[in-house]
């Protein structure tokens, strides 16, 4: 979101990463006033001044662009609201929530999606909001005619209160956020990041394991192209005494920028080629598919990488009883179907948690805590 317009909007007051371009000294009002739509221009109701004891130094969550923008205080607030959203979702079957009544969310997806797009749309509707959606915008929008992302985003801004963007280019979400005056949520930008997936992943680990400090995490599969594992590595580094194991074929090893970041945060990491050994040590095995769409014409490299590391009964036999298996989905054959019945298979619970996290983000971005 453009900085000048963002400063005028009352948003949830969550801390940002210290390097963010939107870091301010702000007072936290007890209940931030919602934005109003009026002729396409964003206006606001003046909120009552916060009591002195509630004033703290913090920053605004204006957009959700990258996992490292959040600190632990922000994560705790998001997770607290997500727990509230579990109750809201259960109650919505009888008396639908009206928290976001009158708000419109635009989902603009240039790459295929099932869980992310549908969970965002379900989240908005569960909270009483409405949805404008386009699927496969790369082919079925004016992008096919050569329209720039910036022009498309400016146009969609006129129709909506918040934009959820998935794009095939790394950095596209930041470009969009710098273009418009309403919140932008990065729903995946090529091989870059997927911050809302990382949020739901960390939330799932907390719900399943009971703690985030001191865990051992095995990241398996396509670590070079997988935006989910990149974002998860950034986010889990916020916690103490973390150990990460990277298990992947040589052609899709984790990139050096993530390793350098983990080193800068004092996070231990280790590369291994032995999935069974790693599984025996971990609290979480996070499996990912080898992403054929990222290999271009080098199908030979894809075929060489696919199927090298599979979570099956052999992995379950060595996996600790308290541990869980996660996967951002969709899966192909990297987790065998007979694993699904094991209580440690958490990937469908993980997908459901995506609804609660996205409900929480929409609430926090549009009307506050």
From TrEMBL:
InterPro entries (alphabetical): Asp/Orn_carbamoyltranf_P-bd, Asp/Orn_carbamoylTrfase, Asp/Orn_carbamoylTrfase_sf, Asp_carbamoyltransf, Asp_carbamoyltransf_Asp/Orn-bd
- A GO biological-process term: pyrimidine nucleotide biosynthetic process
Q: Which organism is it from?
A: Urochloa decumbens
Tell me which family the UniProt entry assigns to this protein.
Answer: Belongs to the aspartate/ornithine carbamoyltransferase superfamily. ATCase family.
All residue ranges annotated as the Aspartate/ornithine carbamoyltransferase Asp/Orn-binding domain in the record: 213-364
Any idea what this protein is called? aspartate carbamoyltransferase
Give the enzyme's EC designation.
2.1.3.2
Task: Give a yes or no for keyword Glycosyltransferase in this entry.
Answer: no
User: What quaternary arrangement does the UniProt entry report?
Assistant: Homotrimer.
Briefly, what is this protein's role?
Answer: Catalyzes the condensation of carbamoyl phosphate and aspartate to form carbamoyl aspartate and inorganic phosphate, the committed step in the de novo pyrimidine nucleotide biosynthesis pathway.
**Start and end residues of each Aspartate/ornithine carbamoyltransferase carbamoyl-P binding domain:** 63-206
Keywords, alphabetical: Allosteric enzyme, Pyrimidine biosynthesis, Transferase
The record's SUPFAM superfamilies line, in alphabetical order, gives:
Aspartate/ornithine carbamoyltransferase
Q: Pathway listed for it?
A: Pyrimidine metabolism; UMP biosynthesis via de novo pathway; (S)-dihydroorotate from bicarbonate: step 2/3
């Amino acid at each position: 979101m453009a900085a000048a317009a963002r400063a005028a909007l009352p948003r949830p007051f969550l801390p940002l990463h210290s390097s963010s371009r939107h870091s301010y000294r702000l007072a936290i009002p007890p209940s931030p006033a919602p934005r109003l739509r009026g002729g396409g221009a964003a206006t606001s109701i003046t909120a009552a001044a916060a009591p002195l004891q509630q004033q703290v130094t913090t920053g605004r969550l204006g957009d959700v662009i990258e996992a490292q923008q959040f600190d632990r205080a922000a994560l705790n607030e998001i997770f607290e609201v997500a727990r509230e959203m579990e109750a809201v979702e259960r109650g919505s079957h009888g008396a639908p929530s009206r928290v976001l009544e009158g708000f419109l969310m635009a989902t603009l997806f240039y790459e295929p999606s099932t869980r992310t797009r549908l969970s965002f749309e379900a989240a908005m509707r569960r909270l009483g909001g409405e949805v404008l959606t386009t699927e496969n915008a790369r082919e079925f929008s004016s992008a096919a005619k050569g329209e720039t992302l910036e022009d498309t985003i400016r146009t969609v801004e006129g129709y909506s209160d918040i934009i959820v963007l998935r794009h095939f280019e790394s950095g596209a979400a930041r470009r969009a956020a710098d273009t418009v005056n309403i919140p932008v949520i990065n729903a995946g930008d090529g091989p870059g990041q997927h911050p809302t997936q990382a949020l739901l992943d960390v939330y799932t680990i907390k719900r399943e394991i009971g703690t985030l400090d001191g865990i051992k995490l095995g990241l398996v599969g396509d670590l070079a192209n997988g935006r989910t594992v990149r974002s998860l590595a950034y986010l889990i580094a916020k916690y103490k005494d973390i150990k990460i194991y990277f298990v992947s074929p040589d052609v899709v090893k984790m990139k050096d920028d993530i390793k350098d970041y983990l080193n800068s945060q004092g996070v231990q990491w280790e590369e291994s080629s032995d999935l069974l050994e790693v599984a025996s040590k971990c609290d979480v095995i996070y499996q990912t598919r080898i992403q054929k769409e990222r290999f271009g014409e080098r199908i030979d490299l894809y075929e060489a990488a696919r199927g090298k590391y599979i979570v099956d009964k052999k992995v379950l036999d060595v996996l600790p009883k308290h541990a869980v298996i996660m996967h951002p989905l969709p899966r192909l054959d990297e987790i065998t179907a007979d694993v699904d019945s094991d209580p440690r298979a958490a990937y469908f619970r993980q997908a459901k948690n995506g609804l609660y996290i996205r409900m929480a983000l929409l609430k926090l971005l549009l009307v506050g805590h």
